[in-house]
Write a structure and sequence with these properties.
Blueprint (H helix, E strand, L loop, with lengths): L1 H21 L2 E3 L2 E3 L12 H7 L1 E7 L6 E3 L2 E3 L1 H13 L2 E7 L2 H9 L5 E3 L6 E3 L4 H10 L4 H13 L4 E2 L18 H8 L6 H12 L6 E2 L11 H7 L9 H18 L6 H14 L1 H13 L7 H10 L3 H4 L11 H18 L27
Parallel strand pairs: 3-6, 3-7
Antiparallel strand pairs: 1-2, 4-5, 7-8, 9-10
Length: about 375
């Protein structure tokens, strides 16, 4: 009897193992059976188009890939984006530390395309012959000049579409803009001088509530749609002056908290302004470089030179830098211009509380030297 029982148990165990081997394997993209080859094998152009995603691996740099006000730029990236568009695919970018990591990505088939630091040097995964052949037939050398011209245009004359307003609406009446009352109301939340917020607004949009940047930033304070989502501002309200200013102040408050390690208020404000323009992650990289070189990482005069240096390969490729290349000259200029404009606005007296934001108040004939 025991002999038959052991035999029966053995049969059940073998049956269980057999069933276990035939169980489907659940993976992020669906269910596959053990008999089906792994996804990486024979995954070529048609499969990429079916998945809808083309993966690009590259390094950070002005000729490869970088983030600029929420807009992805770089000669290599823009060429690859055009190629992805021609395939009807979304382009996903994986930023690598250096060329050695790019070699690893290529050898291990972890990316569909590799964009090397040399303009025009784009290589397809060696295990995807259809993709490689399509890229070779699609690519034309003149694309380099085309995308460079496109990028230059975006970064200069087409950067922000806006109407130009005078620096001050009514200097004699102490009116900087139509929105002074809003600046005074919301600046209290971040303990800023309202005239500093006005100076920043002028730098962003010249007080044009309909201003739009090439990257898609909108309104008086140039809020990106993604940032609006994060702040809880409906995209339909991006052009509304009060909603836009309120969202900007909420974002500034977040930046203030993220730089709470900078105790001195004036200095912290410089870092907040720089981060509003260039991204807090880049500013933290510059601070790390300054600290490494024995400078004061909490002093803008010590850190701003490193913001400029993040445009140089010697610095943006440094292991201490976590977020790569940055167009730092614009950010340093941004902070400087706002500070200069604020200094000019500091002679402006606050309008009376009855002033309506949508209509300029005429200058009072009588002045009181004690008005503030």
């Amino acid at each position: 009897m025991n002999k038959y029982l052991y035999f029966l148990v053995a049969i059940l165990l073998l049956s269980s193992c057999s069933q276990k081997k035939q169980e489907p394997l659940v993976v992020p993209w669906g269910v596959i059976n053990d008999t089906v080859p792994e996804r990486a094998e024979n995954f070529d152009l048609r499969d990429i188009q079916t998945s809808g995603e083309l993966i690009l691996a590259t390094v950070s740099g002005p000729d490869t890939y970088y983030d600029y006000h929420g807009k992805s730029l770089g000669t290599q990236y823009l060429i690859c984006q055009r190629f992805a568009d021609s395939l009807g695919c979304h382009l996903r970018v994986d930023v690598c530390r250096d060329s050695l990591e790019l070699v690893h990505r290529l050898d291990s088939c972890e990316a569909d395309l590799i964009a090397w630091p040399t303009p025009g040097h784009i290589e397809a995964d060696r295990q995807k012959p259809d993709l490689a052949a399509t890229l070779e037939s699609w690519y034309r050398p003149h694309l380099i000049a085309e995308v460079k011209a496109e990028e230059t245009a975006m970064l200069t004359t087409k950067k922000v579409r806006r109407r130009i307003f005078s620096p001050m609406l009514d200097a004699k009446g102490g009116i900087i803009s139509h929105y002074d009352q809003l600046f005074m109301t919301y600046s209290r939340e971040i303990r800023w001088d309202w005239r500093l917020l006005a100076a920043q607004c002028y730098q962003e949009s010249t007080f044009d509530p309909k201003a739009v940047s090439f990257a898609g930033a909108k309104g008086l304070m140039q809020i990106m749609p993604g940032t609006a989502d994060h702040l809880g501002l409906a995209r339909s309200k991006l052009y509304e002056p009060e909603a836009n200013i309120a969202a900007a102040v909420k974002y500034i408050a977040e930046l203030e908290r993220s730089f709470s390690d900078i105790r001195e208020h004036f200095e912290r404000t410089n870092f907040v302004l720089a981060s509003y323009n260039g991204g807090a992650h880049h500013i933290r990289d510059a601070m790390a470089l300054a600290r490494r070189d024995g400078k004061n990482p909490h002093r803008w005069a010590d850190v701003s030179p490193y913001v400029l240096k993040l445009a140089s390969p010697q610095y943006y490729n440094d292991p201490i830098v976590k977020h790569g290349y940055m167009r730092g000259s614009e950010t340093v200029d941004y902070v400087s211009r706002i500070r200069q404009r604020h200094a000019g606005y500091q002679g402006v007296k606050s309008p009376h509380m009855g002033f309506h934001s949508s209509k300029p108040r005429k200058a009072d004939k009588r002045k009181n030297k004690y008005d503030i």
